[in-house]
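Researcher: Before we compare anything, I want clean individual predictions. No alignment, no superposition, just each chain on its own. First chain goes here; please echo the sequence and then give the structure tokens.
Model: Echoing the first chain and its structure:
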Amino acid sequence: MHVLVTGAAGFIGFHVVQRLLARGDDVCGVDNINDYYSVSLKQDRLAQLTSHENFHFHQFDLAGRETTAELFRTHQFDGVIHLAAQAGVRYSLTNPEAYIDSNLVAFGNVLEGCRHQQTGHLVYASSSSVYGANAEMPFSVHQNVDHPLSLYAATKKANELMAHTYSHLYRLPTTGLRFFTVYGPWGRPDMALFLFTQAILEERPIDVFNEGRMRRDFTYVDDVAEGVIRVLDRPANPDSGWSAKSPDPASSAAPYRVYNIGNHEPVELLRFIEVIEDCVGRKAEKNLLPMQPGDVPETYANVDALINDVGFNPGTPIEDGVRNFVDWYRRYYRV
């Protein structure tokens, strides 16, 4: 396959590209290499990919309409995996414009490119944050998700709505993937696992929000990458059982699907910290803080639809995943 992966220098994008290359696909990667976090980390990820003859990289911003259109005019992609986005819930409170440009304008440009090129399947990153104020656990793709609690979450919900429109109007197969707290080697420096590991090793206190009374469905990055590629290989089809009188948010009469990708086993934040302590070999000094605006107390994925439709069930234990991250961190930073 000839596959476009946006956000190729990002955490999830890097792992997805590696798997595509390993199975023999030809991959075109795009990333703007912004400075939201360490540019050198992104460049080091890229260095692992650019040595492969089947990987071709372009650095530009997908919010640029003409540049994005030119990319699609000059390539015939069998599939597109759109992972480029401005990440982070808390950052969206102070930098909303970054989310408008990266998560809405850029996504619209990608949809237009797929439409005009008649791409076989668009798979794009949504987020567990779309569940927002929902309190019924586990979160199911069949639930209504109209109450986001951050602009980041709202943009991801908007992506799902935009994708459905293109699936309906232009019969473009689209599949949205709601990722649940992805972690692992080469992870983002703004994520809890990275921040906690770094602080514990440097003997600094860690900030623990909501005094640790939070649960997250931590999902190992290899499980996420595997799920993305399995979904790519199964383009969305119209749901023959879908009813406009009782519409299911997870499917449609159009070729449209939404899936959760989570470990479906939420872990207490304090337990997560204990696992990090065991792997690092040092106890953490905890700075207990209140809940941050935009955060939710718990995430928990129902992945029945993913299992039934795609045949994949994420399940890497946090003990294994955290150990792999800490080992990578020590090697990469020579700690």
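Researcher: Okay. Second chain, same rules.
Model: Second chain and its structure:
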Amino acid sequence: MIEQLAILGSGPAGLTAAIYAARAGIGPIVCEGMQPGGQLTLTSDVENFPGFAEAIVGQDLMARFRAQAERFGTRFVFGAVERIESVEGGFRLVGTDIVARAVIVATGASAKWTQVPGEQEFLGRGVSACATCDGFFFKNKDIAVIGGGDTALEEATFLTRFAQSVTLVHRRDTFRASKAMQEKAFANPKIKYMWNAVPESIIGDQKVEALKVNVGGVSQVIPVQGVFIAIGHTPNTACVRELIACDAAGYIVNETGSTRTSVPGIFAAGDVADHRYRQAITAAGSGCMAALDAEAYLGA
């Protein structure tokens, strides 16, 4: 059986696309990926998604997205797609038994790592890239957060719920984060700052015990029990990079003003094609666009 539409990814973009496609009678099937709900499930309180006067936990918001998509008949399969291949009549999703006439790629982006010594060795033993996943384990501990963008400041602010102190380690003397996020962080008495600081190594025996940084050519050791990496993301485009056009950073290139890619029948939505805004609401909006573009393609 050839599906009409397969959607890769189950974050705001993928699930919004599923809602619109299902309501249009297309009967989409969603490949959830290895992290159902996407990056938003790693976020604590979501305060800027329209329709919620009070903050909502990211996992709860995505559960509502999924329930709404299911209500209209969307089907789900767990797991990741290895690659997409063009076949007669559509596309084969290698790694599954799915063949579809059209595909929406909404696979999002994954956290980047610093690659400093000790980072991978202590992963799960004091090193993390997900504050909402692991913050609970650092009650009354001293923590370092590496980064200077929105991700880093959001992680640091969230971690103050548990930590005794949080030190933001940033290689520049100013943050790249939004003004609102900076104001929130600067107002938090638990957050300290190390400017012009470059991480050199993560130190410990069985668990993280310290972070070694270089500040102005001088090495310093910060006693911490946790190190959270928050330096950005890499688009999850491995499954399509050999088939459709991507930019130098790996993000999918869409036609201007649409979600169409360089291959007719394949559309892209959300962070996998957006390295600028990267917000839940913009991802959801592009998911709507992708569903409408796919509907037009299938009806042509």
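Researcher: What stands out in the second chain?
Model: The helical segments are 12-23, 58-71, 131-134, 150-159, 179-186, 280-299. Additionally, The chain is about 25% helix and 30% strand.
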